[in-house]
Amino acid sequence: MRLKNAETLYQTVYSSIEELYGSSGSVIERILEVKKNLANAGRIDSQLATKADSLGTAAYQIEDLVEELRSYLHLLEMDDQRLETVEERLDTSTNSNVNTAVRLKLFFPSWRPSSGSFPR
Predict the structure, then answer these.
(1) CA dihedral of 31, 35, 36, 41, whole degrees rounded to 10
(2) Dist. CA 70–CA 117, nearest whole Å
(3) 101 lies in a domain?
(4) By C-alpha distance, which of 9, 15, 27 is closest to 63?
(5) For 18-31, what is each residue's pLDDT tens digit?
(6) Which single residue of 26, 81, 105, 117 has CA 20 to 30 Å from 91?
(7) In sequence order, what DSSP letters do the residues of 60-95 get, joined into one string?
(8) What angle is formed at CA 43 by the lines to CA 41 and CA 46, rounded to 5 degrees?
(9) Which residue range is the domain that position 96 belongs to?
(10) 25 within some domain
(11) Is the pLDDT of residue 90 over 80?
(12) How far from the centroid of its chain's Cα atoms is residue 79's Cα?
């Protein structure tokens, strides 16, 4: 399912990264601005300095999440290349047994033609 929907997944994750981190006015940019304002006000009231620190932690968590999403994009790109390769093989093959074997291998990577059984 993921292979067939790679483009949708890619676009969703990419736009999420942009909203969180990449674009002007991104979530991280706004959080850091609020953190700065609270840190300044924290000089007057120490309770606000603590809130600013919490926003700093949130900013680090968002940065970590963005890195994880970038890694996910890389995996999607690899899956997309794999799907293209499989589709090319299916398109060029006229032997239905080969088509079946390729499809089985795609969905059940541990399946071997000689095993005669399907993985569960």
Answers:
(1) 140
(2) 37
(3) yes
(4) 27
(5) 999 888 889 999 99
(6) 117
(7) HHHHHHHHHHHHHHHHHHHHHHHHHHHHHHHHH---
(8) 90
(9) 6-107
(10) yes
(11) no
(12) 12
Q: pTM for the complete prediction?
A: 0.61
Best-predicted range by mean pLDDT (2-6, 88-92, 98-102): 2-6
* 117 domain-assigned: no
Q: Residue type at 113?
A: P
Number of domains composing the chain: 1
User: Residue 45: inside a domain, yes or no?
Assistant: yes
From the CB of residue 59, how many other CB atoms can be counted at a distance below 10 Å? 18
- The three-class DSSP label of residue 50 is helix
**Residue 13 parent element (H or E):** helix 6-17
User: What is the average pLDDT value for the chain, to the nearest integer?
Assistant: 78
